[in-house]
Amino acid sequence: MPYISQSFIDDLPNQIDIVDLINKRVPLKKSGSDYRAPCPFHGGKNRNFAVNAHKQFYHCFKCGESGGAISFIQKFDNLDFVEAIETIATECGLTIEYDSNSTPVDPRIERYRALSKKVGEFYMSQLRNSPAKAKAVDYAKSRGLSGEIAKRFELGFATPSNKDLLLHFKDNEQELADLKTLGLVKEGQYGDYDFFRDRLMFPIHNAKGNIIAFGGRAFDKEVKAKYLNSSESVIFSKSRELYGLYHARKNSRSMDYMLVVEGYMDVVALHQAGITKVVATLGTATSTEHLQILIRTTNVVVFCFDGDEAGRSAAWKALQNSLSVIKAGATFKFLFLPDGEDPDSLVKKESAKAFEKRISKAQTLSQFLFDHLQAEVDFNTIEGKTLFLEKATRLIKLVNYKAYQQQLMQGLAQVVDQNIDQVRSIAEQQAPQAQDSSAVYTDIDVDYEHLDEIDMSSFSDSRHYPPVRKPPASQVNMKALMSKMITLLLNYPTLADSTTEVRVRAIENSQVLLELVRSAQMNEDISQSELIKPFQDKQGVYNRLQQLCTLEPRLSEVQARDEFLAILTAIENQQKSERIKSSIHHAHTLKDQQKIMKGILKAKRKA
Fold first, then answer.
1. What is the pLDDT of residues 367-380, one digit of tens each?
2. How many other CB atoms are found less than 10 A from the CB of residue 431?
3. Cα–Cα distance between 205 and 20 in angstroms, integer?
4. CB atoms < 10 A from the CB of 143, how many?
5. CA 533, CA 229: separation in Å to the nearest integer?
6. pLDDT tens column, 564-603
7. Helix, strand, coil abundance in the chain, percent, nearest 5
8. Please, what is the end-to-end C-alpha distance for the chain in angstroms?
9. Greatest CA span in the chain, whole angstroms?
10. 460: how many CB neighbours lie within 10 A of its CB?
């Protein structure tokens, strides 16, 4: 039996949610502070079996069975101790630490969580006591938020001063260093300063209720970035966290559906209206990790988007990501709001009951899939219908749930009024459409460290120009690298900064990327549709950017930055190599060639 690090076992309850884990096996219903169900161990119809999310503990009040997550999986799935841990780790996306030499759980994690809690308390105190609190209080009242809701979400206030948070922790060097690591304090030209200033603060909680990051909403409409999130860290990854999930579980009696909205203000406003089964992504598109969390929580996921072009584009991306995740018992739906409305404004205009009626009538995934593709073609022509069939079958092939895939094929056959066998025949001819980062960039195999190597062996005293080495077949295509950088930037606008702009400006034929970097610099929370809008007059470029918008790398913000900078460095090195080769090519004498070689060797020694 393999040895599992004790520190990993000890920290496991902090990494998972027992309600989420048990609900997959035993449907739970909210009951007071617990979740209840008939006991899976002794049977019966009475809801004697209770699960406490805060304590990460279950207990049956009749038969006495009790324990934590590992104990439950051992008993319910009939597994031994190690198998139970492996099952939990697999379902929750955790990497197990094996053997006696394994590295212990990162000791910073608990320190960062404790510090984040202190920061949250500081922001809450400022909302109550700061002399500058009036604008925050007035803004919250203007949005109809009560004191009870503000307390539920632990809302706070970042004061206009640029050093209040910094000064609050000034006597603890470790905490100051950690604040910088978490991105809550920044280093500037004139000293350290608070990252969040003059904003209504929204603590971001993990599934257990620990504060792991912050979001800030500006009061000034003219400010460059209306919303800001704190940086990703070892305790916070945007692609794996859903704002409001903890509050939804805590304040909802059941989880018969989950509404996914676009911003944390929408989550808070809907709670204010009494609609609590709602979460939001944190400035990113809905990832497969988000979807897996959602379908472990509920059987019905309803995506709520604005009805404009940007909203439908975001919904289409969510649909594409959903196809490979959907499984037995899971349903995805799409709710599009009237023009000019968001969940906050609409629920106030219509009432919570009317809004919930909209949720119940949301469009099914199959309806949205077929309607969206039909709108992209001239469905009344043979050519348009053919293109529709090709696009639809390519997407349907991404569905891993075979029963649902079969139903989609039958539905498609009805839409085009053809025999199911004919549709299957067309499907067999279609290559699946790439959906994740491993498929999006399959044509790019980058050896970042050796792009600057060139062959210096062909020197002679001949007056003929030495042959220029042709790049091998595996040499990276510059356009493909540029496309990958653009895709990363479209998904992670925060990659753009002044240093990036200077480096991109030096790259040949990078005008499109440079303009995107400049736009993203001006507003790090800019949407994809706003980023590419300036290119609408250049139809070819605009169409290509729209294609790249649909490709979403499954990376964290930290991984995306590393990838972006690695590619940027690779392009710089490749262009440098080309310039060197060109110099060698145009060297008319052996002496000139040797001079170039000396310069190269000298530069390498300095490096």
1. 999 999 999 999 98
2. 7
3. 15
4. 16
5. 24
6. 888 888 888 888 777 776 665 555 566 666 666 666 555 5
7. 50, 10, 35
8. 49
9. 97
10. 9
